[in-house]
Write a structure and sequence with these properties.
The chain is α/β, with parallel strands linked by helices. The protein contains ten helices and seven strands. The chain has helices spanning 19-28, 45-55, 91-117, 124-131, 138-147, 154-162, 177-186, 203-215, 232-243, 277-288, and strands at 4-8, 33-36, 63-74, 77-84, 190-193, 220-225, 246-250. Strands 1-2-3-4-5-6-7 form a seven-stranded mixed β-sheet. Helix 1 (19-28) links the parallel strand 1 (4-8) and strand 2. The radius of gyration is 18 Å and the shape is globular. The relative contact order is 0.16.
Amino acid sequence: MKYIDLHVHSNASDGTLSPTEVAGLAASLSLSAIALTDHDTLSGVREAQSAALVLSDSENPLRIIPGAELSVAYRKKDIHILGLFLDINNKPLNDALHTALIKRDERNEKMASNLRSAGIDITVDKLKAVEGEAVLTRAHFAKYMTEHGYTKTNKEAFEKYLNDSSPYYVPRDYLTPEKAISLIHQAGGLAVLAHPLLYKYNLEQLDDLISLLTKFGLDGIEAIYSMNTGFDEGIVRRFANRYNLVITGGSDFHGKNKPDIGLGFGKGNLKVPETLLEPLENRLKIRSL
């Protein structure tokens, strides 16, 4: 049995490994495919693909699936839609991602200003000096505050300063779910609801969300996930059956920013079989007709 990981981050957004390092790690673990799904950017995909050609074994090649994780607004919450098998040169998608990055920068400036009012010496320029061209997220704010002694851990930074009920938090101007799914389809990809149980909806509320997204053309749902416990996977699979959605799975790997989550194996027992790729590719064929 070969295994894959369809939810992976690099330092093109809020992971800590470069796309080349991610590809190298995937090859060393004998994964047959990973999807690079950085937040609101496709910038790391080409590097990861080039690295995979060099680093993976010719008898066991590593496939890099172009992806991105798009943030959308739903009932005052931040919901994530994965785009998989994307055309990284698609202009409408790249234009929308560029706009999202501008809005993200504006939000980051406001949040940094709020944090300075709390006595934290932080600016977006200081973050960029450390993180380079990475898409800045709240994880970078947390890392900075921990490294500079304002908090003991990244978790504490989120709990005290960065969660959406904090007075220092600034909401983003998000894409609508309908627009995000449309952009993914325009770029030749599949739209997948990421980690559906992390949003803490009850089953009726989750059904409402999935029903709405399906009307907009949702293709899949992430049923195999690092944070699943108990009957979680079965719950998501039942939603997939109800709404004719394909199943995906991924670790949500971020390197040292989520040190308890390993590429390809999550918290130790994650196994995403390569056999999931065939129904995904069949769905792609149907979508292209």
